[in-house]
Give the backbone structure.
Amino acid sequence: MNQTLAKFGKDTLKRLLFQCTEPQINLFKRMYKKPSDNIDELTYHQVVDNMDDSKIDTALSQVERTIVKNFKKLERIIQKNSNK
């Protein structure tokens, strides 16, 4: 992968992960860490920096879907509370 695209993808992943919950970030870390990494010692930034470039596209898609899911859940909560 082109290094400029890889950097852009990783930077985007970091910005998107900031919008995720802690359990969602921990799942991401478990899925994308290197086998030798200890997730308790790494931030999600470090996991993203260390991940293989070939996994960036899949990771971006998964994190984007998670954010959409979170937003829809929040919308339902707001809608439910506004109807009370």
